Amino acid sequence: MFGDLLGNLEEKQKEMKAKLAEMFVNAEAGDGAVKVTANANREITNIAIDTQKMDLTDAEALEDLILVATNRALEMAAEKEAAESQNLMKDMLPPGMGNLPNMFG
């Protein structure tokens, strides 16, 4: 019984990881000067810099904007991941117990 449950859990985790890889979030800093895209696996997939909105000779300012946008994107990705994890747990619980994760969070 537990072997089936654990095998199913591993399979569900793989499915969730693949699903999270296809869910994207976008964050920006400096009024759009820097845009960062991440997937819900918390992997940065793109960084875009609008050279019209940024003085590229100011390396420190550029670095700060990249950090801000990246941290925002990772935070948003973590929120998506948490929501999907909660949905996975609901789906795995026996019928009638799908609200159990909400009782503790």
Folded structure, characterized:
The chain has 105 residues and is of the alpha+beta class. The protein has a single domain (20-94), classed as Ybab, Chain: A. The protein has helices at residues 2-21, 59-92, 100-104, and strands spanning 24-29, 34-39, 44-49. The chain has a 3-stranded antiparallel sheet. A hairpin with a 4-residue loop joins β2 and β3. The longest helix has 34 residues, at 59-92.
Give the secondary structure arrangement, pairings included.
Blueprint: H1 2-21, E1 24-29, E2 34-39, E3 44-49, H2 59-92, H3 100-104
Antiparallel strand pairs: 1-2, 2-3
Helix pairs in contact: 1-2
Please describe the structure with a list of short key phrases separated by commas or semicolons.
elongated, Ybab, Chain: A, 17% strand, 105 residues, 56% helix, alpha+beta
Q: Can you tell me the CATH topology?
A: Ybab, Chain: A
Please outline the major beta sheet: 3 strands, antiparallel
User: Separation of termini?
Assistant: 28 Å
- CATH homologous group name: Nucleoid-associated protein YbaB-like domain
The CATH architecture can be given as 2-Layer Sandwich
One letter per element, helices H and strands E, the order comes to: HEEEHH
Secondary structural class: alpha+beta
- Ranges with pLDDT <50 over ≥5 residues? none
As for the number of domains, it is 1
CATH class: Alpha Beta
What is the molecular shape? elongated
- Strand ordering within the main sheet: 1-2-3
Strand proportion: 15-25%
Q: Helical element count?
A: 3
- What share of residues is helical? 55-70%
- Provide mean pLDDT, rounded: 86
Supply Rg. Answer: 19 Å
